[in-house]
Amino acid sequence: PAAPLEKRDYCIKELIETEKNYIEALNMITRDFMRPLKDVLTPEENEVIFKHIKELADTHAGFHADLHKACLVPQQQQMRISDCFLRWKDKFIVYGDYCSNLPKAQEQIDELCTKKQLVNQCVLNCQQKANDGKFKLRDLLSVPMQRVLKYHLLLKELMKNTAETHEDYHGLEKALKILAHYINEVKRDNETLQIIADIQASITDVDLVSNMELKDYGRLLKDGELKIKSHDDNNKIKNSLISSVNFGEQYIYKSSLALCDYRLENAPVCSSDSPVSFQYYWFLVHIEKKTAYTMYAKTEEMKKKWIEAIEKAMDNINPSIAKDTDHQFAMHTFKVPTYCSDCNKLLPGIFYQGYICSVCGAGVHKTCLATVRSCGAPSLPPRPGSHMGSQSFNVSASYLNLAEYPWFAGTMERDGATAVLEKSPSGTFLLRISTKQNGGYAISIKSVFVMTSRHLVHRATSPARNMKACSCSRHLSQELVSWYETHSLSESFKGLEISLLIPFKNPLGRAVALHNFQPTADSMLGLIKGDVVTVLSKAGQEKGWWKGQIQERVGYFPWQYVQELPSAGAEC
């Protein structure tokens, strides 16, 4: 890189130099520890201790090379600093798993060095050779976590010293937003996992399912002091979740409750027979009324917070937002980087990042549970719109053959169009060639009040259209029809508040919906599994959409979500 000239250059210089130092640290771990210890560790031990180290070394070698390219003189620049971060951001996702595994790796090192003299001696030799014993291996393994937590600070400082008019400013802003969100989630989850580990360590004789830890039971929502009374007997605290004893910060495990088996019932008044310090109570009642518990808090505010935490936990188990979906969702820890099946954004964090469907495997954010496509449904194509017409003509010549379209009537005058559309529902339309207009095209449409014709001789008001030919070509005619199928004719024809809804020719057939489809635009036709759709047009099939009608509703729907039904005259 060129010599620094301003504060921005110094920020870039610091970024590149610290990146170089980080790569050297990764290479040292690989060269001076990972390789020598390979012969004294089992493959399983090696995988736990050095998980992702080689992958990180390769990733940051490429990232560092791109940073150098971004610092060339403007004439030789192949990318900007922000491009480097945006290009490698998906590779950085591995830090989530690395940070999650770090405590386990450090515990493995400590345990092996304590129990196995050979391993301990080899680790000491490696530490002495690598850095004269200044840093222990367990400390060096913390370097990647420290580095990833620093990137958003470096980016923030770089943005601070980059003018808003600079070509890289908005790219840096985007990179910072993405990286900061991801890093904050990783940092938060690491802190949460440490708290959960501390809680587990403070409980003696904890009775968990084999090979499970407390973190596997979900996210920590609240901890604190409660008094719990089982309705099976009159002894308070007999069946509490955690009961304290009199020595230090240790707790004795009593039992746990599966919240999915209970419902919460509030008690509006204080308990007259409860201890003075625990007057505020509520109930947890088994959904099959097998048992119940009364829970007591010290203050009304503490009671409120406990109830909120329990209700949140219950909603995490059975989200109310997902009650109408056909998926089988459950909270899940994704071991590999996963993007939401609905919004295509990363499921951030280290554990219980979102929900997974046990049937189709779709992974989603909690906020996306209500809008994700039906279980087993294909991925949605790009949403339909004006682009369906204007972008298709140069691809397929069939788009220029108007006779293939169910709305094209050929040569026809106004009176003929009126007769054809007279008994049709509102919104039915046709495109015709008018001999009175020297072969020009005209649209005739049946509205609620009147059947009207409009010639395609106008300047379209949409910025996407600017047509003024006296005799529109077939190309422009098809494009205009596509436009007004999703936009009101009032844009160009004052007072005509209607779109082109139903082609005048007989429907192309019927189809049954195989999956639910939630529309995200007015031009779309929502589907519920089992709906029978009248197929009006297949002109957008190359884009993934058909046009159809269900009762009075007309719109586009993904054609892969339906199965065509045989015609009435077809043989069984």
UniProtKB/TrEMBL annotation:
| Listed GO MF terms | diacylglycerol-dependent serine/threonine kinase activity; guanyl-nucleotide exchange factor activity; metal ion binding
Ranges for the SH3 domain? 506-567
Give residue ranges for domain SH2. Answer: 407-504
Give residue ranges for domain PH: 283-315
Q: Which stretch is the leader sequence?
A: none
Report domain DH positions.
7-189
Gene Ontology cellular-component terms listed: cytoplasm
Which superkingdom? Eukaryota
Using the UniProt record, name the top-level EC class of this enzyme in a single word.
transferase
User: Which positions fall inside the Phorbol-ester/DAG-type domain?
Assistant: 326-375
User: In its UniProt record, which GO terms are filed under biological process?
Assistant: cell development; cell migration; small GTPase-mediated signal transduction
Entry's EC annotation: 2.7.11.1, 2.7.11.13
**Keywords recorded for this protein, A-Z:** Guanine-nucleotide releasing factor, Metal-binding, Phosphoprotein, Repeat, SH2 domain, SH3 domain, Transferase, Zinc
Q: Which InterPro entries does this chain map to? A: DBL_dom_sf, DH_dom, GDS_CDC24_CS, PH-like_dom_sf, PH_domain, PH_Vav, PKC_DAG/PE, SH2
- Which PANTHER family did the record assign? PROTEIN VAV
Protein name according to UniProt: Rho guanine nucleotide exchange factor, putative
